[in-house]
Amino acid sequence: MNGVGEEVTHRTVERVARESYGRLVAYLSVHTHDLAGAEDALSEALLKALTAWPRDGVPQNPEAWLLTTARHSLIDFFRHQRVASASEPDLQIFARSSTEAAMETNYPDERLKLLFVCAHSAIDPAMHTPLMLQAVLGLDAVRIGGAFLVQPKTMGQRLVRAKTKIRDGGIRFEVPEKRELPARLDAVLEAIYAAFGIGWDDMAGADQRGRGLAEEAIWLARVLLQLMPGEPEIQGLLALMLHCEARRRARRGPNGRYIPLSEQDPKLWSVPLTEEAERHLAEAFQRGRMGRFQLEAAIQSAHAERARGGRTDWPAIVLFYEQLLRLSPALGTIVSYAAAVAEANGPEAGFAVLEAIKREDAANYQPYWAVRAHILQRLGKTQDAGEAFDRAIGLAEDPAVREFLLQKRG
Amino acid sequence: MQFALLIYESAEAFESRKSDGTDAYTGAWRAYYKAMIEAGVYIGGDPLEVPETGTTIKITEEKRGVQDGPYADTKEQLGGFTILELPSLDEALEWAARCPAAAYGAVEVRPLAPQTKRRIVE
Questions:
Q1: Could A391 and B100 be called an inter-chain contact, meaning their C-beta atoms sit closer than 8 Å?
Q2: Could you give the C-alpha distances from A212 to A59, A142, A194, A207, in angstroms and in order?
């Protein structure tokens, strides 16, 4: 074993782990319902690969090798546990189907079932995204805890609890029936979007709570689309995230200065990402089934118009928000709507939308204060604007956003 | 539940103490303080003078030890604390993330220990 060989092996293991993790976990857990067991077995197989592959060479089909190795340790585990007779049939099905699968290089892709399990209504909605990130992408509790501002230890415990519920709670590993599908799919989409974080791109000075998991979220949406091709809301979500992602480089100026959407240089927006977003959105619209994520993507598409030399069509954006509010009147949507109305119909009209929000609902909601501050400033109410700016600055997490608001406040 | 936010600051952040209060860091703190008051979560707190002003006492086996400067020799130093009343750690972590020092130094969230205090005070 030499250093170079070891490094090549490490890289191969990493690559296979990244590309196949979710498929392997899904396949290993679909009959046992035991996510933690499948993950442990796979980690063990990955560890074994690190010693076996440098010695014996990387196998021709690394994924099949991992699957076989993980399956063996799972079966060993079951034998040691002397599983209750009730679960014997499960184990038999599992052992048989795995033996067959090991012969094939193409074992079934069960990730769709896994995604639906992670976002099942019996699981605490706050755990949908963490479960997905762990089971499908193999992220650890430290990374997930960081993204969601939760202690790694606590996140680990919550993940264990959720997996126990999946194993013992009779949650079925299946693609929901047609009748249930829209609601169940919605939960999956919400969970993926939650990993992306919230892009308040169209509201200047609203704190963007990116979670540092944008790539992971886009990857999950792509997997989902691959498993359910042509589903308009999946394409809507993907289009929405791609539009936001396309502007990443334009969002920061020299020295990390925050640049709001209206002041961004459209030449810095990624053309391939924007085009891909537009393609997905156009395909989604053709299905004629409008939904929340398609509307959100349409709003971002209207903003992207500036890259084609056009102007931002605020009246169109207002109409999209009105449709969106009819579907789900979330606080964030109302605040974004107020900002759009202020642009389209003047600050008085925008202010009226804000005033309809109950103050206690928005007390600690940073985007509300940022939009309120801008609108009050445009109305010439300097003192009230200053107070709103202070709240927006005090509630912001991103130091660049704070600095931007401090400057605007004057 | 009460939580202490222990504010660890970098040397640059401590430098801002010398300014007239118009710098961005101090401005951010002013806004953060207001937001905590408005949210009704603020119990108390104070900034501390710069670490160089600290003196550390440690008595070992009848020997008195006096050391110039702070106890812990770390890059970021304790620069103050804030005590907040919140329903759970989740909210405390959110307020810590908004703290201006979080982006330049670090903010440690620690629950206060009222039971220990009761044992001492009673």
A1: no
A2: 34, 13, 11, 14
